[in-house]
Amino acid sequence: MGVEVAVEGLSKSFGSQNIWSDVTLTLPTGEISVLLGPSGTGKSVFLKALVGLLNPEHGKVVINGVDVCDCSESQLYEVRKLFGVLFQDGALFGSMNLYDNIAFPLREHTRKGETEVRNIVGEKMEMVGLVGSEEKLPGEISGGMKKRAGLARALVLEPEIVLFDEPDSGLDPVRTAYLNQLIVDLNAQTDATFLIVTHDINTARTVPDNIGMLYRRHLAMFGPRELLLTSTEPAVEQFLNGRRAGPIGMSEEKDSGQTAAELAELGEDQGVPEIIPQLGISPGVPERVAVRRRQDRVMADLDSLEPGARQAVVNSLSDSERARYGLAGDVPTGPVDLDAEQWSADNGDTVRLSGEAGFAGELSTEQVARLPREEAGAPSGDHSGPEAPRQEVPSASEQTPSSSGSPQPRPTPHPRRAPEQRAPEQRAPEQHPPEQPQPVGSAEPAASDGRKRRRFWRKRGDR
User: Fold this and answer.
1) Main-chain dihedrals φ then ψ at residue 94, nearest 5 degrees
2) Which of 370, 395, 381, 368 has its CA nearest to residue 430?
3) Residues near 278 by beta carbon (within 8 Å), at least 6 away in sequence
4) Which pLDDT tens digit goes with each residue over 221-239?
5) 161 CB contacts (<8 Å, ≥6 apart)?
6) Name one GO molecular function term (predicted).
7) DSSP category for residue 401
8) Each residue of 438-448: pLDDT tens digit?
9) What is the pLDDT of residues 354-390, one digit of tens each?
10) CA–CA separation, 387 vs 393, rounded Å?
11) H/E element holding 249?
12) Which CATH number is associated with domain 5-257?
């Protein structure tokens, strides 16, 4: 389980050169965070300040109640045991094979026997996919293998905080994708707090739970990935899209007039960017609980976002996530259209959802009888008896009076067949025009006596 890292008002300079000032952020427990920024903005310096390798002029770095910037050597030594660090180039010892490189922290900082060391090293090498390469020297392996060996060494002490200093530098896109998946899976297995410094836009968009950006000697933004990915702040939007037009130039800053002209060339505002789905875990890896923690924070503060960002956040949720946060009783499969006026912090207001929810249910026999038939002119009544042909059944207002003057009751449906299951040959052909319906419920069969039939129609004609 990871620990929280709280940074308050941190400032660092080298002589008269200010690197950054008043940096304040919190790395949430067990989550993956990414720190972005143009080259030369002090991202690696920030990592060194976290582990106490550089002393800032002002501010605090609080870990487990200890301020790394103002503590004794013994306290700093204990705090550093919580860290694992993956350096840019792996920082492997060239004269040691991979096994000895990975075992070095265990032999240096613990009193474990070689049997236990061998078991731990073997477990971490299997975790990063280096089984069988124990005897190879760093000069005999590829850059991607060096990164993985450095990551295995960073994990042998079971750290609660892991720092990645540009883990994708020098790697091709395929190896970078494998490394990103490995980082996500490791976080799911260890629930440690990860901080990644990177320039890779795909990594920044898909891997982290939280994103921060250093720009112009200060922390421009830091927060959940949904906040940064929907940001319309020019510097953040320019960096995440990797475009030339914007306030960031070759020397980090541009003239304000040039920036305004370039932004005008981009045309009208394109609205809030779409949130790219986060990279999931590999099959067989336990669920990342950090995702739920981040989503809980985002949904708790959803009403503080701009309407466009708010809608983008809700649209990025899956059906099960929408149901979990009570966005709708019947969760639609399509996108959600959420207005600013229709949302409250406690989800008490109605949320308007676009898309149609499905319907499932059962109809009674009476409801089925009233359904329209597909066949033109097909009667919709029931049998009046087991052997009687199908007859048209009028509604209550259209029932024909009997000889006693009282309306006849609706016939009882056939006990063994639903109306729609009867074969077409059981339907009696129409013998009379629809405007002259045959009486229902007579004690005599409708077609058993021709004289009575003729007598009935003669009396009807007399009337």
Assistant:
1) -65, -25
2) 381
3) 206, 207, 209, 225, 291
4) 999 999 889 888 888 888 8
5) 2, 3, 5, 27, 63, 82, 83, 84, 192, 193, 194, 195
6) ATP binding
7) B
8) 554 444 444 44
9) 333 333 444 555 655 555 554 444 444 444 444 444 5
10) 16
11) strand 248-249
12) 3.40.50.300
Q: Which residue has better confidence, 408 or 135? A: 135
Beta-carbon contacts of residue 326 (< 8 Å; ≥ 6 apart): 347
Report pLDDT for 258.
60
- Number of neighbouring beta carbons within 10 Å of residue 5: 24
358, with CB counted inside 10 A (0-12, 13-18, 19+), is: exposed
Burial label for 176, CB within 10 Å (0-12, 13-18, 19+), is buried
And the tokens for 31?
């989550």
β-strands 32-36, 193-197: how paired? parallel
Listed residue (188, 200, 184) closest to 279, CA to CA: 184
Q: Identify the helix (H) or strand (E) that includes residue 325.
A: none
How many angstroms separate the CA atoms of 374 and 427, rounded? 14
What tokens appear for 253 in the block? 């800053």
Alpha helices by DSSP H, 250-349: 256-265, 289-300, 307-315, 319-324
Q: Which amino acid is at 172?
A: D
